Amino acid sequence: MTASAILTAFLTIVVREIRRFTRIWPQTLLPPAVTMTLYFIIFGNLIGSRIGSMGGFDYMSFIVPGLIMMSVITSTYANVVSSFFSMKFQRSIEELLVSPTPNWTILAGYVVGGMARGLGIGLIVTLLSLAFTRLQIHNLPMMVLTVFLTSALFALGGFINAMLATKFDDISIVPTFVLTPLTYLGGVFYSIELLPEFWQGVSMINPILYMVNAFRYGILGVSDVNPYVALGMILVFIVILSVVSLRMLQRGKGIRH
Amino acid sequence: MTVQANQEAPATWALEIEGLKKRYGSGFEALKGIDLRVREGDFFALLGPNGAGKSTTLGIVCSLVNKSAGKVRVFGHDIDTDLAGAKLNLGVVPQEFNFNQFEKVFDIVTTQAGYYGIPLRKARASAERYLRKLGLWDKKDTPARMLSGGMKRRLMIARALVHEPRLLILDEPTAGVDIELRRSMWAFLEEMNRNGTTIILTTHYLEEAEALCRNIAIIDHGEILRHTSKKELLTQLHVETFILDTDQSLATAPVLEGFETRLDGEGAVEVDVEKSQGLNGVFAQLDQQGIRVLSMRTKSNRLEELFLRMVEDNARQGEVTP
Ligand SMILES: Nc1ncnc2c1ncn2[C@@H]1O[C@H](COP(=O)(O)OP(=O)(O)OP(=O)(O)O)[C@@H](O)[C@H]1O
Ligand SMILES: [Mg+2]
Questions:
Q1: Could you list the residue ranges that cross the membrane (chain A) (predicted)?
Q2: For chain B, where do the domains classified as CATH 3.40.50.300 start and end?
Q3: What is the pTM of this model?
Q4: Which of A19, B53, B135, B287 is the most exposed place for a label (fewest CB within 10 A)?
Q5: Cβ contacts (< 8 Å) between A23 and chain B: which residues?
Q6: Which of B88, B112, B120 shows the shortest C-beta gap to A95?
Q7: Right CATH for B13-235 from 3.30.710.10, 3.40.50.300, 3.50.50.60, 2.40.50.140
Q8: What is the arithmetic mean of pLDDT over B91-108?
Q9: B239-302: which CATH topology?
Q10: ipTM of the predicted structure?
């Protein structure tokens, strides 16, 4: 295929993904907006006013970056895993497999499609948060880079999950038992300074902690970890997961006999 | 006319398969090394009973199934070294519905064009052309799951054609399609073929192969039993059975010298006639006996008989040498 044909194929996949999640917006766009508004009201306003300050900021300001990241991570992952798995399940993935679209383009299309939803949700949540707090921006490039790379990383994670899944249960195991706990323990709601030393150490092996903190650094300028180390780490993971995803696509396990 | 030209001097093979083998993950050997060649411009049928390996063969050609051994070339593009080239020349209508049930008809077809790198405007025009041709244009905004079975089949044909492939592969395109629609699909495929598209189809309806195809391969248990022209296959049929409706209600079948006869359930006479015999003898003798023939037809489909005989022979050989 020529470069422009590949670009067309890539955009076709992305547009198709965007069409899918906007078509089913009550399942994809509405729930995070509702949940996050509740978080803002309960944790930020009602309870937050009693907690006082965290990391040098009032509690509401402190949790907003974490909640934005949380919704970006969850939505991106959910989009790729459910979209790709249902393509696999309905066998409509064959439409792509018989076409000359290269594997890396298929992967890129799904990743960017998932990012479109994740970042779209991130934007919605950010706008909602403005009703509760004033957002300042400490380091815009850091903020933008972190949220984009994190989203890309979890899109890849969702893709691998979908490739491995053989039944619908398999697509909710990771989000429920891995992503949610890691996010809640990843410094969304507290600074790990509050933890005993031992648990601080344990928290440091949680990759989501790095992403949340790097993003919070971009907005507030405070972080429990070095944000540049965090960015580098995300990049390394992206490379690893991309290679794994591509190899899985090439082998075609679960999609080709 | 293009057809004849192609038959005489094939410039290219639309499809070449050599020594193709497939062993599934389960260990089952679905293809035991088949060879197949289809000329450009041909209308080719791959016939075989359930489980013969038809879908496996076509699946390998369009890279939905990984082969275990062998070579496949589509218009000279080897799928091992130039898969994209092979795919660009190929349109596939699979046996099972495999579109996203929730997407709209028009979106399904234009999206498929996009996967082939066709820009949106051209993709839309092409989608419209084929949806109109296949009588689905008024359904363009309907989600695929709301189509009838026959419409879904036609949707898959439109989808397979949207990038205008030179080789169209259809795996049982008329399964579950009523007679009227089947005829119109036949007419459509014949027109495509006349306009230069090479067509390969698998079918259970031997009538379909007899009506449409010029060349035929018969496959069973992962092996090609026969690979020849339809004409040649038909001349191999030595005995044909004719059914004669007469003006009399006969209690027993008339005795005709040199011919096997019997009565069918409705009192018509069935006569077995060998190719060399001709029919004149039958009529002469019936005339002598004062029996007038009102109408005559051949019993069952000739290809079908031949096909059954071949598959049975193959099974019998299998018993002797397991
Ligand atoms: N994914 C698979 N795993 C294991 N065996 C398979 C698989 N797919 C097909 N087979 C086996 O391979 C053989 C050939 O199957 P195939 O689908 O090619 O037959 P077919 O000629 O298309 O039959 P039909 O007319 O019923 O569509 C069958 O015995 C089938 O059970
Ligand atoms: Mg089949």
A1: 30-47, 59-87, 107-132, 144-165, 171-192, 228-249
A2: 13-235
A3: 0.84
A4: B287
A5: 102
A6: B112
A7: 3.40.50.300
A8: 94
A9: Alpha-Beta Plaits (3.30.70)
A10: 0.89
